[in-house]
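Changelog note: in this version the structure field was regenerated for every chain. One regenerated record is shown below for reference.
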Amino acid sequence: FDIYMEYKDQVRIQVSVATMNHELARIMEPRVASPEARIGIIREAKNIGLTAGIIIAPVMPPLRIRPKLPRTWRRL
């Protein structure tokens, strides 16, 4: 994050998380970091003072299948 710190008032770090389900994540995005690793990136960025956030898109599985999903969002 060193280069971002130099411009920390001008940048925002964001990562997308479509699902917290490991099996589904591996199928949807086979060669990317796990959902936990992505959230870890955001935690690390925020801990050193960068503006950071998570893009929750697309929502998988959809709300009609998993109605308790908003609770998960609050934890993020």
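Spot check on this record: The longest strand covers residues 12-16. The mean pLDDT is 85.
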